[in-house]
Amino acid sequence: MASRLRWLGGASCYSLRYDKLFILSVLAECSPSEIIPTIGLMVAELLLAVAGVIDGCIKLANKVITTYQSYRGADELINERLVLVQALWTKLEIQLNFLKKISSQLDEELAQSHLDLLEILNGKLLQAVARLNVSTSSTSNDSTLKQKTSEVWRKWRFSMAKKGLDELVTELEAWRSRFDPTWYLIILMSSTTLDTALKETDTKSTDSTSVCSSPSPLDSMLALRHAISPPKTPISGESQPKTSLNLDAAGLRGATETPIPFSSARSIVRAGSNSLLIAESVNAPPGTISQVKVDVENLARRLQQVDPQTFGLLRCYGLLKHQDPATKGLKYIEVVYRAPQDANPPMTLRQLLLRHHPVSASAIVRTAKQLVYSISYIHTCDFVHKNIRPDNILVFSDANSSLGTSYLLGFNQFRSTHFQTNLLGDAAWHRNLYRHPERQGNLVQERYIMQHDIYSLGVCLLELGLWRSFVWYPDESQSDTAAPVPGISLGLALSDSHFQKTNTGGDGRLKEHLVGMAKTILPSRLGDLYTDVVVTCLTCLDPENEAFGSQEQYLDEDGIVVGVRFIESILDKICQIVV
């Protein structure tokens, strides 16, 4: 027994998560006094490994950049690429140094996820060093001075440098887009060490903001952290924001308002302005307006801090609060968002699916990735969406994609993860189609959790992958009043009567039908990896699902474990798809 425990204590923590079954079998034979020190040692090694790999990555990156700087001034294209690399690495280094500073407070899941990513970055930087060695080795191996100074050799050397810098820019951008969702999960940590580190880092970076042309990545983290967990006492030396969330309805007088088809939102163009706003009302079930007001204000604060390009969410402009004329009490709230700069009024994904114009597989995958990122960040903001459907995905035209750029909206049913949800549903088949069986019908079975959003994501990704609308409107021009019918692509007859039971939720047959569709139709259209992502989402609460399993297993206090599993099982895989 002692030898097996010593083996565990010295085991590589890199494979800690994947060796859990073996570890549990060993620990089952141990006494509690033997188990606790062993587990503590393994987690400690994991945390030390995170800090160690960060140090290694920083040294490698600085070596690469220093070497490439020797080419500065020799070629204009090299200069441009070097500026890009330095800008990318400056932000990454800030993030990595901060991660190292708080690494001792990471829980096992989050630490392991960061370590896996850091090892990938380390490998990319080692490849960059190897490429540099190839391009510079000729300076010492050429046999004659003539060869060293020849025009042919100079052009080859600069060509290799440009190629290496191009590859490095691409790899750093791809790695950071994958790293950011995991890094932002740190926001959910309850540790006061995080707040202290953010305050210290913010103070130290104040003097450097004038040097950097763009804000530090810690700025958005600090703002989001304060929006999620406001400081109990003012921070010494730090100015406290006094910006009001409330908008004056008078400011929208004379504005041109246009309903967005198949959506509860509308686009607004104010008089004398070309900027576009998007507004949507938030539902408040009877007796819940006070709690809804708190949640909407919290959501607005967090959405004021998001980077739309990174988060896939529109930035909040403010709130319009409407009173009941009779009681003078608060009746409902509208959330107003800023649309992308110079944007035209958007369409919903539902509208695009119904039009069924041909689109490329790469455009579909790009939209799927944007949606996955959006949901990841909603959960990072400590909310569940509860209404993920193509009707709530806005698409703005974009010259870079036939499908445009998408943003998730439809927060009219959202709630904080800490607010006990009601168990009242509805029988509308076209909404129940996107709900997990536990949440279908008039009286649902379970309170809403993050995995229910993940299931809804799976239905949307299936529909997107097939590029056929599951919901059909006989007369598209009458979308607000026309009764929807099941689309032919759904291959299933559905009506409200299927969900009118008052004592249970759904029976699971719809879910099994969707899983079957994904397994049989998607592989030939978008490949096995996309299919696997969809099936993983649809089965996220099945006991046999290795990525998520039962909801009880991942009801962690901070929501970090579900976030990590979502990133690893869904976001990671969909980011690997190249069309």
Automatic annotation (TrEMBL):
GO terms, molecular function: ATP binding; protein kinase activity
Gene3D superfamilies: Transferase(Phosphotransferase) domain 1
All copies of domain Protein kinase, residue ranges: 262-567
SUPFAM superfamilies assigned: Protein kinase-like (PK-like) (SSF56112)
Pfam families: Pkinase
Transmembrane segments: none
InterPro entries: Kinase-like_dom_sf, Prot_kinase_dom
Protein name per its UniProtKB record: Protein kinase domain-containing protein
